[in-house]
Amino acid sequence: MIAKKERLNYVTKFYSSSHDGDCPICLLPLPIDSRKTILTGCCSKVICDGCNFAYIMRECQGSEAPVCPFCRHLTDMSKEEHGRNLMKRIEANDPEAMRHKGFDCESEGDYISAFGYYSKATELGDVGAHFDLSGLYREGQGVEKDEKKEVHHLEEAAIGGHPKARHNLGFVELKNGRHARAVKHLIIAAKLGHNMSVDLLKLCYRDRLVSKEDFAAALRGHQAAADATKSPQREAAEAFRKLGFRKNSEKAE
């Protein structure tokens, strides 16, 4: 009983930054939206789309062969070469590469292989892989559905600072009627910059499950987390992405 209470206190401990940490180039916190980050194919470094976009713009103005913005390795690789390089990183026990390969397998419907890569990545300390495993246990993909194992991996990911895992734990606790625990998780996730947690906290505030002071603190924390990830380069990358989306939509019409 004591051990269970100690784990609960540990799980609900607040972490001031997400599991992804900082971009290794600009040193600003990485966005928690994975669509705004890039995994380099050569060194398996996760960089922000702002640094990647800034590098591409400089590259377009020059005539040299394209290289990785981080390690300066040549990046003019075919899909097959990229795959071989990823496997080399996996053989070198790179957990980020393993999780990326697991995601590829999951996207292709190969859940058993995805489970294997995610599991190995968790053994090497990858927080995101715990979150990915929770999804497989929730959906029963490659494994039998197991809510206890789902929650276990959500807790491990949350302890490591994973905002989405923290949000999901809050949702699970709400569903089970443990409102105080749920609010704790949602406040932590909101302060890490998770938008859906703010939306859920608004409903909790409406239903008087969270105090006005705690709700206001969560909103301030959320705004601070969002501001910390901003830069002119990231805003330029976002504007370029939206422009490309609009052009594709116009073509579809």
What does this protein structure show overall?
The protein has 253 residues and is mostly helical. Helix content is 65%, strand content 2%. The chain has helices at 2-11, 49-61, 79-91, 95-107, 111-123, 127-139, 147-159, 163-175, 179-191, 195-206, 212-228, 232-252; strands spanning 37-39, 46-48. A hairpin with a 6-residue loop joins strand 1 (37-39) and strand 2 (46-48). Helix 4 (95-107) packs antiparallel against helix 5 (111-123). The longest helix is centred in the last third of the chain and has 21 residues, at 232-252.
Question: How is this fold's topology laid out?
Answer:
Elements lengths: L1 H10 L25 E3 L6 E3 H13 L17 H13 L3 H13 L3 H13 L3 H13 L7 H13 L3 H13 L3 H13 L3 H12 L5 H17 L3 H21 L1
Helix pairs in contact: 2-12, 3-4, 4-5, 5-6, 6-7, 7-8, 8-9, 9-10, 9-11, 10-11
Strand order of the largest sheet: 1-2
Strand segment tally: 2
Rg on CA atoms, Å: 20 Å
Query: How would you characterize the largest beta sheet?
Result: 2 strands, antiparallel
What percent strand? under 5%
Low-confidence stretches: 245-253
Cα distance spanning the termini: 61 Å
Instruction: Give the count of helical stretches.
Output: 12
